[in-house]
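#struct-help
A.M.: can someone run this one for me? Single chain, 70 residues.
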Amino acid sequence: MDRKYIESSMIRSIGFDSASSTLEIEFNSGAVWQYSDFPESEWHLFESTDSQGKFFHSNIKSQYSEYQVG
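D.P.: on it. Structure tokens below:
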């Protein structure tokens, strides 16, 4: 999955696959996680928010099925 690099104290890059509704986040630790059944509308909000870290904690973490892939 293609990811774009962002300026964040906790997240290095983010990507979204609309065909499978999968969000992928690479954290600054190097860990890569995928979140299933992630709505495209949420992706647009996440991508454009001022703080992806805050958005992650408020709207993504523990809200979607998650799998560590790297």
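A.M.: thanks! The mean pLDDT is 97.
D.P.: also worth noting: DSSP finds two helices and five strands in the chain.
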